[in-house]
Design goal:
This protein has about 250 residues and is mostly beta strands. It has 2 helices and 15 strands. Strands 1, 2, 3, 4, 12, 13, 14 and 15 form an 8-stranded antiparallel beta sheet that branches. Strands 7-6-5-11 form a 4-stranded antiparallel beta sheet, with no helix packed on it. It has a 3-stranded antiparallel beta sheet with strand order 8-9-10, with no helix packed on it.
């Protein structure tokens, strides 16, 4: 092969790879991005080992819509307001790098408080119905005894949440959500670092929103087996969660 032919083929392949990379980045930034669930803070809704597709256009775009959060936007564009009950992926305010996923409970101006174990939203209890008692659920590497509830938010959205049966958060100060911020909670209420922890997560600025979780496309129980050990998939692959809409 002549040197010119070799250089031509090399340049042509590099162009193809560059175009493919640009297209992949645009798809990831503007449309859907896959995410992995590494913790049990959103059980029973999301399990460790779930892989999700997150809609990047659901709330518009900010610098956090793009890889490495480049400082190209200082505001959101094509903004769409999130709704109560959405499963929101966001960058933690403490470092603007770490991705968290939690359920949106409070909108700007809302007042939220825990009293006697109930959540008060603007002085009214969030409706909840107990559906299971004293079941075990994961909390890190331990099993936590919890009670299962179905909660109904003021906009009619229903979701499952669990509270420790041996001691849950009974009372808290009142949280007042600032303008352009949101209050988010993990569904595993006593095993979640969320907006209740003001110094670590706190109120989430709208600029930090990354997207809305839409679909579980794959799920593997990583506590049992690594996904790479395909010969053990029968024991660890959660077939019923494949393509589950959220």
């Amino acid at each position: 092969m002549k040197k010119k032919d070799f250089l031509y083929i090399l340049i042509d392949n590099l162009k193809t790879l560059t175009y493919a990379l640009i297209i992949a980045i645009l798809l990831r930034s503007l449309f859907f991005q896959p995410f992995y669930i590494p913790s049990s803070s959103m059980e029973p809704t999301l399990l460790v080992g779930d892989r999700l597709f997150v809609s990047k256009y659901a709330y518009g775009y900010s610098k956090h819509s793009f890889p490495f959060s480049p400082p190209i936007l200082n505001k959101r564009v094509f903004t769409k307001n999130p709704k109560r009950g959405d499963l929101v992926v966001f960058k933690t305010p403490s470092d603007n790098r770490t991705d968290y996923i939690k359920r949106l409970i409070g909108l700007p101006g809302d007042k939220i408080q825990f009293i006697n174990g109930d959540i008060l939203l603007n002085k009214k209890k969030i409706k909840r119905k107990k559906i299971k008692t004293s079941q075990n659920i994961r909390c890190g590497n331990i099993n936590l005894s919890v009670n299962f509830y179905e909660e109904t938010l003021p906009n009619g959205i229903k979701h499952k949440a669990v509270y420790s049966s041996i001691g849950t958060l009974k009372n808290s100060d009142e949280y007042i959500v600032p303008k352009d911020h949101f209050f988010l909670l993990g569904d595993n209420r006593d095993c979640s670092k969320d907006s209740r922890f003001l110094s670590e997560v706190g109120y989430v600025n709208k600029l930090n929103l990354v997207g809305k979780a839409e679909l579980i496309f794959f799920s593997n129980d990583t506590f049992k087996n690594s996904v790479l050990k395909f010969w053990n998939w029968r024991d660890s692959f959660r077939f019923k969660r494949t393509f589950k809409k959220l």
